[in-house]
Amino acid sequence: MNVSFQQRQFFLLQNLDPESSAYNIPLVFTIDGALDTMRFEHAVATLFSSVDILTSSMKSSNGLLETTPGMATFTNLDYADMSDSTPEEIFEYLDRFITKPFVMGEILYRTVLIKQEQNSYIWCLVLQHSISDLKTKEKLCELIGNLYNNPSTPIPDTVKNYTDYVKYQTAWLASDSAISQKNFWQSALEAVPKMLTLPVDNPRPSFLKFNGDVVYIEFDQETTVAIKNCAAQYKATPFLWLLTSYAVVLGKYANQDYFSIGVPFTNRRDDAFKETIGCFVNVLPVTIDFREPGTLFDLMGSIRKSMLLAHRNQEYPTELIIKSTLPKGSSLDANPVYQTGFTFEPFVKLALDDCDVIQRYMHHGGSQLDLFATFWEDQDCLSGVIEYNSTIFHEQTVERLAENFKHVVIESLDNPQIDVHHADIVSRNERLLIDSFCKGRVLSVTQGTDFVSLFKKSVDTFTLKNAVTFKDKV
Question: What is the pLDDT of residues 21-34, one digit of tens each?
Answer without folding.
Answer: 999 999 999 999 99
